[in-house]
Amino acid sequence: MPSDTPSRVTRLEVISVGARQRWTPERKQELVLETFAPGAKVNAVARRNGVATSLLFAWRKQMREELGFGAAPAPPAPPPPRFLPLAVAAESASTLELELAGGARLRITGAIGADLAAAIVTALARR
């Protein structure tokens, strides 16, 4: 039932969503140093201090050398592919099938001589 008298607001609540938080350089450095402590986990430090984990990782990357931790270690190189010994039964072999690293297969059909098979394996071993 509509009323002709204006209603009065008795309570007004303002909620701020997504407000950017400003971090001082000193506070950033404190948080980054905390992540380099033995046994510290970046996500735990971030959660405890109300910082996005990705932001804390970005700060770590920016300050790593400045704080004396050196450049981040490079990820280890993948091992070179390994090949099984190749034996060609006869010059008239009709199919050569090689299984490459990662499960890829190379199949060559036709008359394949030992020299051609050896050249293919040698070329693949160099990659």
Notable traits:
single chain, mainly alpha, 127 residues, 8% strand, 4 helices, 34% helix, elongated, 2 strands, two-stranded antiparallel sheet
Please describe the topology of this protein.
Blueprint: H1 25-35, H2 42-49, H3 53-63, E1 95-99, E2 105-109, H4 114-126
Antiparallel strand pairs: 1-2
Helix pairs in contact: 1-3
Characterization of the model:
The protein has two domains: 25-63; 77-127, no CATH class. A hairpin with a 5-residue loop joins strand 1 (95-99) and strand 2. The protein has helices at residues 25-35, 42-49, 53-63, 114-126; strands at residues 95-99, 105-109. The protein is elongated and about 100 Å long. The longest helix has 13 residues, at 114-126. The protein has 127 residues and is mainly alpha-helical. Helix 1 crosses helix 3.
Quick structural gist:
With 127 residues, the protein is mostly helical.
Widest sheet: strand order?
Answer: 1-2
Number of domains: 2
Element-level helix/strand string: HHHEEH
Query: Helical amount among residues, as a percent range?
Result: 25-40%
Shape: elongated
Which regions contain 5 or more consecutive residues with pLDDT less than 50?
none
